[in-house]
Design brief:
This protein is of the alpha/beta class. The chain is built from ten helices and ten strands. The chain is 43% helix and 16% strand. Helix 1 links the parallel strand 2 and strand 3. A six-stranded mixed sheet has the order 1-2-3-5-7-10, with helices on both faces. Strands 4-6-8-9 form a four-stranded mixed sheet.
């Protein structure tokens, strides 16, 4: 456990990463992004971790976007123009490329970068009082760095409406447009997350790891390329220790004992 703007805590098979800037509605800055990325890398190395849950402290905000206050330290809108490497983009890429399943636990409002983080995660569970939006246009900005992760999740017309009106989605709308997997009341948020964690932790770590890698790699391929890639990867999955254990357990009518290899 670390006492900083990002907390990482092992909870059985889950590692929970919490943004801890409640006074700033858990807004994103370079320190937060670096902290999340470091926590993800550590969780990937942790053999006991099967699922990573990303959330914000308190009940008001998951992540209210990037700091736009005057003089905000490390905010995403202050960037060296000669440096093409933007920490928000690296954060979204790190989340999406993570080899372990990532769940966004949406405990409150998620605006701008917060919406991008949600779209980069594999699954999302949302409290019914929360809202997801992209309000940058209201202050004369456009959410450039969150366009790539959000385009992979939302239909184009709905996405453009969010971008150019700045009107946020309710939890019910977010569920309707497949931006989140589940909506629950605030009291039931942790129960639903725990249910998903248990379901994922019961499956083969190696199958999930290779499956996530394949899905991420195939996103930008043509259909024929996807098929050729899948055909070459399937035998690799079948040769893992987990696959052999899965076959044996099925035949012997018992629960498999996964090694993650």
């Amino acid at each position: 456990m670390t006492e900083s703007v990002v907390q990482s805590q092992a909870l059985g098979k889950e590692v929970r990463i919490t943004i801890r800037r409640p006074d700033n509605r858990n807004a994103l800055n370079r320190e937060v992004a670096d902290g999340i990325m470091a926590a993800i890398c550590a969780a990937e190395r942790d053999s006991d971790c099967r699922v990573i849950v990303l959330t914000g402290e308190g009940e008001r905000a998951f992540c209210a976007g990037g700091d736009i206050k005057a003089g905000a330290d490390g905010g995403p809108f202050v960037q060296d123009p000669a440096d093409p490497d933007h920490f928000a983009g690296r954060l979204f890429e790190t989340i999406q490329a993570c080899r372990k399943p990532m769940i966004a636990r949406i405990n409150g409002v998620a605006m701008g970068a917060g919406a991008g983080i949600i779209c980069a995660c594999d699954l999302a569970v949302m409290a019914d009082h929360a809202r997801i939006g992209t309000p940058e246009v209201k202050v004369g900005l456009f959410p450039m760095t969150i366009v790539p992760p959000m385009m992979r999740v939302l239909p184009r017309r709905r996405l453009m409406e969010m971008f150019i009106t700045g009107v946020p989605l309710t939890a019910e709308e977010a569920l309707q447009f497949n931006l989140v997997n589940y909506v629950t009341d605030a009291a039931g948020l942790d129960d639903k997350v725990a249910e998903l964690v248990a379901q994922i932790a019961a499956q083969s770590p190696s199958a999930i790891r290779l499956g996530k890698y394949a899905c991420h790699a195939m996103e930008d391929m043509t259909y024929p390329q996807q098929m050729r890639f899948a055909e070459t990867l399937l035998p690799r999955v079948a040769q893992t220790e987990d696959a052999r254990e899965g076959f044996d357990a099925f035949i012997e009518k018992r629960k498999p004992e996964w090694t993650g290899r």
